[in-house]
Amino acid sequence: MNRTVRQMLLKAAETLRSAGVDSPLLDAELMLAKALKVTRTHLLGHPESPVPGEPAELFLLWIKRRAAREPLAYILCEKEFYGLTFYVDPSVLIPRPERKFLVDAGLQYLKSQPRPKAADIGTGSGAVAVTLAKYAPHAAIWATDVSSRALTIAKRNAVQLGVAERIHFAEGDLLAPFAGEKFNLIISNPPYIPSGEIPALMPEVSRYEPKSALDGGPDGLNIYHRIITNAPEYLLPGGIIAFEVGQGEGKPVRAMLLAAGFSNVKAAKDYAGIERVVTGEMPE
Predict the structure, then answer these.
(1) In the CATH scheme, what is the homologous superfamily, with its name and number, of domain 83-281?
(2) DSSP letters along the chain, please?
(3) Is the dihedral of CA 71, 73, 75, 77 positive or negative?
(4) Quick check: pTM over 0.90?
(5) Residue 51: phi, psi to the nearest 5?
(6) What is the CA radius of gyration of the chain?
C-alpha cells in the first residue's frame, strides 16, 4: 500500500532533522511536491493522498541526498532569485538572497543611463547578468566566466528567461575577454572566502559548491585586487564598479578602490547590517 503525503513528509523530516538540515520539513515538502509535479500548496492541501511508487522512489532518493547535506538547489536543479527561477547544478555557485543588494545597486545605476553597457565578471549561473537584462531591458549586458560549464548554464538561463539576445557571453579570465571594450558598469560577485575558512563552512557549501567560486585566496581579497587593477582600462568616465563583499571585507575593498583612483566610494549594508556591496565611480 502506498504511503500518504503526510506519512512520507513526517518520516522524511525526521531523517533530515537527524542529519542536521536547517529546514527539514520545508525541504521535504519542496522535494515531494517536485517529485509529484504539483505545487507545494497543492501538496499541503492533500495530506492524505497516496504517493505512487515512482514519485515515492524519487523522493526517497532525494531525501538520501539531502541527508548527506547536498544543497536542495542542486537536488531540484533550480533556485529562485529576484523573482526568477534559475537552473543550477554543482558547477555553479547557488544564488544567495544577499546577492539582491548587488543587483539593486546595478539596476539603480543602469536605469539612470540612456543606453548603458554592463559587464558581469564571473557570471556563474548568470543570476546577476540575466536579472540585469530582465529588469533593465534597455541595457546591453556582457558576461564572462573562466568555466565553460558555468557559461553553458548561464546561457541556458538566459534562454529560459527570454534575454539571451541581449547578453554577450565570453569565456575567459575576469576582464580579459573584453579587450578593447568600454562599459558604464562593471559588476561582480567574485570568490571572497579566505582559503583557510572554506573547510569550516556548512557542509552544503564546503562539500558541494565549486571551490573556484568560493576561494578568494589567503585573505579573501585576491580577485578584488585583480579586477580593480585592470578596471580603469574598461570603464567609461563616470562609470561605476560594484562588488559584493564578504563580512569584514568592505573596508579593505573601499581602500583598494580609493588607491586605484576611484571616487565616490561607498558601501551598502544588507538586512543584517553587514556591508554587502561596495561601489566606486570612475572619474570624469
Answers:
(1) Vaccinia Virus protein VP39 (3.40.50.150)
(2) -PPBHHHHHHHHHHHHHHTT-SSHHHHHHHHHHHHHTS-HHHHHT-TT-B--HHHHHHHHHHHHHHHTT--HHHHHT-EEETTEEE---TTSPPPPTTHHHHHHHHHHHHTTSSS-EEEEES-TTSHHHHHHHHH-TTSEEEEEES-HHHHHHHHHHHHHTT-GGGEEEEESSTTGGGTT--EEEEEE----B-GGGGGGS-HHHHTTS-GGGTB--TTS-HHHHHHHHHGGGTEEEEEEEEEE--TT-HHHHHHHHHHTT-EEEEEEE-TTS-EEEEEEE---
(3) negative
(4) yes
(5) -100, 115
(6) 21
Amino acid identity for residue 75 in this structure: I
Q: What are phi and psi of 225, to 5 degrees?
A: -55, -50
Enter the C-alpha cell of residue 127: 543570476
pLDDT digits (tens, 9 = 90+) for 120-146: 999 999 999 999 999 999 999 999 999
Give the three cell numbers for residue 253: 575593498
- Residue type for position 107: L
CB 240 within 8 A of CB 113: no
Place of cell 543587483: 103
**252-282 tens-digit pLDDT:** 999 999 999 999 999 999 989 999 999 999 9
279-283, long-range: CB within 8 Å, 24+ apart, which pairs?
Answer: 279/105, 279/240, 279/241, 279/242, 279/243, 280/240, 280/241, 280/254, 281/238, 281/239, 281/240, 281/241, 282/231, 282/232, 282/235, 282/236, 282/237, 282/238, 282/239, 282/240, 282/241, 283/237
Phi, psi of 276 (to 5 degrees): -115, -25
Number of C-beta neighbours around residue 68 at 10 A: 12
